[in-house]
Each structure stands twice: as C-alpha cells, then as structure tokens.
Amino acid sequence: MTRMSDIPPELLAEMTPGVRAFVESLMIQMAEMQARMQAEIDELKAQVKKLTPKNSSVPPSTLHPHARPPATPKSKSKKKRGGQNGHKRTVRELVPVERCTEVIPLLPTECRRCGEGLKGTDAEPLRHQVWDLPKIEPLITEYQRHRLTCECCGTMTCAELPPGVPTGQFGAKLLAFTALLMGHFRQSKRRAAMFLTDLLNMPCCPASTVNMQNRVAAALEQPYEDLRSRLEYEHQVFMDETPTKQANEKAWLWTAVTSTFAVFAVFSSRAATALPKLLGGNFKGIINCDRAKMYWRAKRLQWCWAHLSRDIQALVEHHDNRVKRLGFDLKRQVGIMFSIWHRHKSGEISWETFQAQMEPVRDTVNHLLLRGRCSGNTRLKGMCKELYEHRDWLWTFADIQGIEPTNNTAERALRPAVIYRKLSFGTQSEAGSRFIERMLTISETCRLQKRPIYQWLCDAVDASLKGESAPCILFNP
Length: 477
Prior knowledge:
By secondary structure, the protein is an alpha/beta fold.
C-alpha cells in the first residue's frame, strides 16, 4: 500500500496544499478498497476450501479419502475378525456329476493300517470338484468360394457368401464382445486388442478394434434412433449432462432417462438448442433436472431437491449467522418433506394425504425463500430470488402424481459415462462419439430392463450382418 511518505520529497514540494490533500484522500480510498478486496478474496478462498460433495455439486471422486471427516468414534469391538461362532457357513454347492467335464475315480489300493490289498468300490464316495478355465480356442470357419467357368459362354462365376456371413474376418459374437469391452467395460482399444490376443488367441490390433467399433455402431443405429424418437412421448424424463471432448474440441455428453430406457447423445454445445435435438420438437412432458438455465426452455420442470439440499447445506456451513439461520430453517423443512415423500412412496399414506401434509411444508419453504430474497444479504438474495420466482418448479412432484422430487435417476445413469470420460479423455472422431453414445444407450437401457446386454448385442449384430432389423430392446415397446 502506497503512503504519502512513499512519495519522493521533490514531488511533495511541488504539490500545493490542495493537491496534497486530494492525493492523500485518494490514497485513503485506495487503501480501503484494497482492504475490502482482500477480505472478499479471503472469504472466497475459505468458501472454496469448504466445498465438499455434501454441500455443493463437487463430484465425490474429487475428495481424497484421507481428507474425509473422520467417522463418529465408536467403542472398539471385542469380536475377532472374520466369521463369528455360530454363523451360517457359505460353501460352493457341488454340481451334478452329469455336468462335470471329467470324473476321475480314486480307489485306495491297500489298507492304510495293515497294508492288505483292497477291492471293490464305495457306493457314496467323497466328492471333490475343481473348477478351472478351459483352453480358449477361437472358432474359425473357412468359406471356400469356388470359381467355375461356363462351358457354353466361357464366363467365370464365383460362389457368393451365404446370407449373414460378414465380408470381414469378424463374426457377430466377436464384434459384440469387443464392443462390450470398449463401450461397456471401459477398456481402451489397445487393451481390448491385448485381451483378444493374449486371452482369446485371436490376433488383433488397435486398428482392428476401430473397425469392429464402427461395424457395431452401424448395427445399433436403428435401435438407437427408435429409442430417441420415443422420448418425445414420455411423461417424465430425467436429464443431465457432463463435459467431454471430441478430438481437440469441447463437447457435452447428454443423457435423458425414463423408467424403462435411456438415451445418450454427444453435442458440441450445452445450449438449450440441444433439447429439441434429443427430446424432439414436440416434447410436452416434465423434465427432472438441476437449475441450469438451458432447461428453462422446456417450461415444465421439476428441480432436483438433492441438488437443493446440498446448496442448503452450504448455507448451514456459512460463517454469516443470518445465512446460517435460514439454512437451518430450510433444512428442517426439507427433512420433513422427504419424510412425507418416503411414506407416500412406501404406500403408508395415500396421494391425497400426501398432498394435504405437503401443503404447510410448501407454504413454509416459500415464505423462507421470500425472506431470503428480501433480506438484503448478498449470499441469499440471488439464490432465493431464483427459487422463489420459479417456485412452481420446486413442487411439480406435489402437484402431479408419479413425478420424482430428485434427479438421482439421471445422476446414476451418467456415472459410468463420467468414469469412461475420465479414463479415455473423450472421443477422437465423430464416429467414436456415435459409437459411445449408442453403446451407453444400449448398456443403460439393458440395465433398466434387467436383461443381459451381451446376448441382445449379439442378436443385433447378427441381424445387421444378415440385413435384418435388430431385435426390440424394450420388453414393452
């Protein structure tokens, strides 16, 4: 901080009393401004240090395990590690003899006491089964296409491949398995190639996995478009998005999840223009989402109370007592709200009773938001103003039966995609983006449908090789 004493004496001598007084007042103002700025910087630094997954949208993976708050101390148990006396033993059940690959009878030749020779067999021998992996050998089918010359006109004709036989060297099961390695189990192309070569004895290189990836992506194009077209007619859709990369360009991975299927899409923007691309231009349903403004275009929203709970927890942990007080008041009402909601979900109370019990909670929360909006506190004004002016989007779940109050469904669906992005740093081409969005869509949809993904993917790729339509992925299309 510059003071009058820091000004060179020759400059001070040239100043008139009026100029000197003016310069001194400016320096005082600059000092006060610097002090205020430093205080704000210190406060912001303190807030950033306090950000955790429980009071913000910071991902849980960003918190180092050693940095987590210690658990509540408990008295040390006197029990030893491992299974306790009297607990039910867990053993692998023996499979029937008919299912064994090989049965080797072992007969003792002499008595273990006197050495006399033994004869006969045991009607109920002790059974000991050993499980192991078979030697993995690829199934290689060779098609010999004969070329024959016509005795009449001399034209040479070559036999065609049967329907469903790929022109390349990769069959339907190998294509599906490799696609699962990369798109479902999140392995890189190089590691997928190593797995095929080392464990399955199938010579492969990273370039071959790209070829297989593109073939599977083409097979999934129609099932993917069928699912995306269904979003337009859904009553409720859970949505979320996360940043990613395509080559060296920024991109966004979006997801839209329903109760029976999910759709992923990679777009170059996070703007609201992505909504009609994903949901269709005539979508009239309700979107469960966070408070990001691009969703406001949809008009019918349910803001996620899980996100709001973390924001309210941040108010509770604020150093300003006024902010903290409002945070505690809101947190109390949110706890009551979720208690009533869980009672309704479990069938303990009817929809009409749920609405009646929610009414006072709703009025209290709205009143608290209005109090924060009019408080004049900079920490409260912006947040409470937005929530109060769009308070209808907080209570859609209390007005329309069947709507969830949180966006946890989309959060769970997006988590594998986030892990994939952290491992792969995004995609390297347009074709790569199409593959990953389609594989993520099929993977999550099969999980929601509780059906095995590998068998469906094999059937879809096989149908594509035969020029047929892929099987329907939904049990109730």
